């Protein structure tokens, strides 16, 4: 199909999203309001009959001194990735449109799954001294068509992109995530799929009297205090409270169920908290936070179990625990997080990763030097 790409309104974009079972939360119109340092632009793909057949949220980031922008479509756009005419019919009109908006490079994250590993396969790989990365382990499934999409991208001049820079230009969504399938399963079946430690911890939290409630915007401050403690403990740079307030206001204005906040407490003290995002049948565990106090009552497991049960009750098909490390080395500090997520009995999922296309090679090269100088 040969499409025409043009600017669409928020209403047109949101109507397109609502008509689909799953679209990344990074591709809804309101996400552009969250990323205040970027200029959001809604893109629409129109077929020969004039119908809207694809949509995407492009985030434009002007680069100081050159008057041009980097265009980024995180986990998007939402187009027919399986079309053999992908490059000419869908992507070329997009890059032409973005060039007209002043973009010198386009980066995107095709929402195309390449491989899957069952929880059991991941556990075996962690124990295998010959497996240093997840890719070293035989997958449980290879998704038909993913390799063809990657080849079409390469032939059209796209290339896999590495990590971004820092200082506000840090880009990159996780290529590997961990997902828990929910469709057609009961809470008992899901709990039965947890490993023994997870089941024990859920029961321990219940017996200890851990209470999990859904909070509101007033509770973001409590969440953020725990989040700052988590950042200090785990060694990452935290986002400011204003970022989460902006998320809350923008996403819930678009859809009251788009973002939720959960808090787990014991004897009146909040011990863990997390944000959850929902688009259609897909639910994402977004940000988590916890204190080191009273870990023996297992508030994090209780929190996750409540969020999973609520997602199931609301008709979700997938509960997405987001990014995991692809390295299986014992020294990797993220290996513990992988083990925690594997305990849910879900599956590791590899996407095609992020790809970029320089529209102006000289400016693209200058931008790479700029990023390198800021590191």
TrEMBL record:
Acyltransferase recorded as keyword: yes
The keyword rRNA-binding is annotated on this UniProt entry: no
The entry's keywords: Acyltransferase, Cell shape, Cell wall biogenesis/degradation, Peptidoglycan synthesis, Transferase
Family (UniProt): Belongs to the FemABX family.
Organism encoding this protein: Streptomyces chilikensis
Protein's recorded name: Peptidoglycan bridge formation glycyltransferase FemA/FemB family protein
PANTHER family: LIPID II:GLYCINE GLYCYLTRANSFERASE
InterPro entries the record matches: Acyl_CoA_acyltransferase, FEMABX, PG_Glycine_Bridge_Synth
Top-level taxon of the source organism: Bacteria
SUPFAM superfamilies: Acyl-CoA N-acyltransferases (Nat)
């Amino acid at each position: 199909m040969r499409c025409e790409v043009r600017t669409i309104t928020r209403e047109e974009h949101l109507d397109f999203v609502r008509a689909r079972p799953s679209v990344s939360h990074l591709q809804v119109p309101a996400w552009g309001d969250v990323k205040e340092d970027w200029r959001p632009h809604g893109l629409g793909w129109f077929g020969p009959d004039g119908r809207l057949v694809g949509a995407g949220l492009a985030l434009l980031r002007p680069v100081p001194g050159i008057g041009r922008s980097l265009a980024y479509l995180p986990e998007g756009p939402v187009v027919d990735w399986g079309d053999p005419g992908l490059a000419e019919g869908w992507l070329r009109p997009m890059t032409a449109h973005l060039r007209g908006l002043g973009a010198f490079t386009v980066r995107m994250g095709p929402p195309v799954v390449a491989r899957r590993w069952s929880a059991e396969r991941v556990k075996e790989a962690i124990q295998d001294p010959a497996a240093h990365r997840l890719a070293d382990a035989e997958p449980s499934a290879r998704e038909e068509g993913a390799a063809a999409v990657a080849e079409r991208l390469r032939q059209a001049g796209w290339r896999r992109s590495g990590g971004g820079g820092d200082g506000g230009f840090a880009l990159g969504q996780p290529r590997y995530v961990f997902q828990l399938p929910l469709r057609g399963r009961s809470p008992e079946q899901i709990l039965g799929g947890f490993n023994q430690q997870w089941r024990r911890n859920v029961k321990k939290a219940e017996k200890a009297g851990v209470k999990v409630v859904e909070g509101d915007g007033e509770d973001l401050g409590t969440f953020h205090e725990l989040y700052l403690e988590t950042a200090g403990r785990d060694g990452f740079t935290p986002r400011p409270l204003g970022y989460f307030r902006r998320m809350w206001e923008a996403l819930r204005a678009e859809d009251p169920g788009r973002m939720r906040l959960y808090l787990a407490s014991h004897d009146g003290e909040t011990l863990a908290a997390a944000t959850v995002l929902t688009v259609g049948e897909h639910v994402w565990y977004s940000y988590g936070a916890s204190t080191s106090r009273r870990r023996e009552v297992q508030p994090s497991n209780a929190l996750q179990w409540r969020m999973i049960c609520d997602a199931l009750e609301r008709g979700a098909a997938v509960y997405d625990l987001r990014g995991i490390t692809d390295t299986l080395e014992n020294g990797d500090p993220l290996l513990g997080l992988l083990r925690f997520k594997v305990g849910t009995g879900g599956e590791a999922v590899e996407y095609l990763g992020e790809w970029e296309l320089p529209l102006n090679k000289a400016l693209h090269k200058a931008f790479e030097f700029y990023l390198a100088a800021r590191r």
